[in-house]
Amino acid sequence: MDRKDFFKTSFLGAATIAAASVGLTSCSPSSKKNDPGLKLSFQEGIAPGESLSEKLDFMENLGIVGFEPSGKTLVSRVDEIRDALKGRNIKVSAICAGFKGFILAEDPAVKAEFDSTMREIVAAAGELGSVGVIMVPAFNRQVPCKPHTQETRDYLCEQLHELGEYALSCGTTVILEPLNRKEAFYMRLVADAAAICRDSQSEGVKCMGDFWHMQEETSDYGAFMSAGTQYLQHVHMASRGRRLMPGEDGEKDVYFDGFRALKEMGYDKYVSFECGTKGERSKTVTSAVNLLREQWAKA
Ligand code: MG
Q1: Position 23 pLDDT exceeds 50
Q2: CA-to-CA distance for 48 and 45, rounded, in angstroms?
Q3: CA atoms within a 13 Å half-sphere pointing along the CA-CB vector of 140
Q4: pLDDT of 200 over the 80 cut
Q5: How much distance in Å is there from the Cα of 270 to the middle of ligand 1?
Q6: Alpha-carbon distance 116 to 163, whole Å?
Q7: End-to-end CA distance of the chain
Q8: Could you report the per-residue pLDDT of 74-125, keeping only the tens digit for each?
Q9: How many CB atoms lie within 10 A of CB 8?
Q10: Around Cβ 151, how many Cβ atoms within 10 Å?
Q11: How many helices and strands (H and E) does the chain possess?
Q12: What is the pLDDT of residues 150-168, one digit of tens each?
């Protein structure tokens, strides 16, 4: 590196540190005053009940304000979901995947399947006012997959840019979900997903954190802060030992660190249940909601 390059690099480094400091300052503990409250959401299988309206009644009684349906049958259910939510204090939160194929498929036919089905779901999500459609670039089991190289990352960002711009035109976003390494080694950390959002250069590309998969993280607080409100669009919730209702894994089910970050950031999107239960659903779900509200208040 010659002298000129050295100064250029040093200047950029200083600018980056300065920018980071500004970000940290704006996220200081005093921003707890901006706590927008814990907005809880349920995936469709969480609440007990035979029908969607029974489930929504149960949710409403518990003060749940978000509903996260699967993308699988969303296109044909737009009217049904809209009607079911009419007059209730519950909105569609995120849409959980449901597309066919995957974005990093080697086979052009599989990639084309992803493109068409994902865009249909994104359009339906926009009609329902959803915060975004959750996607994983490639599960470990999805093969053949483009190799894990710089070229593939560049390709992913280009493809996401197009998809993000399309989602914006529909009034919604696409949300990258990092998973644990057993499911998707490609993208495991919230910070990595956030960096892909940044490099995709589209306001329509966002990311999320899932407390279950966040076992990969060294810090829940650091993970959420690394995305910030600029990129963090959704959060998934589960117990931290067996992916059951929060509380079913006893002392492991501690969310203070992550909640503190969300409060300090002024995160105003949803925290949505994605988990099973070993107990009687109406009881375990209710206890979980109470536990999370207690921890949020103390965080
Ligand atoms: Mg999840």
Answers
A1: no
A2: 8
A3: 9
A4: yes
A5: 13
A6: 11
A7: 47
A8: 999 999 999 999 999 999 999 999 999 999 999 999 999 999 999 999 999 9
A9: 12
A10: 9
A11: 9, 9
A12: 999 999 999 999 999 999 9
Peptide bond into 144 cis (omega under 30): yes
**Cα–ligand 1 centroid distance for 220 (angstroms):** 15
CA of residue 177 to ligand 1 center, whole Å: 7
Mean pLDDT confidence for 224-248: 98
- Extract the tokens encoding 234: 């959704």
What's the sign of the alpha-carbon dihedral 56, 51, 123, 174?
Answer: positive
1: CA distance to ligand 1 center in Å?
A: 44
Distance 240 CA to ligand 1 centre (A): 13
Burial of 137 (0-12, 13-18, 19+ CB in 10 A): buried
pLDDT-derived band at 32, boundaries 50, 70, 90: low
Strands 94-96 and 132-135, bridge-based pairing: parallel
The Cα 217–Cα 213 span in angstroms is 8
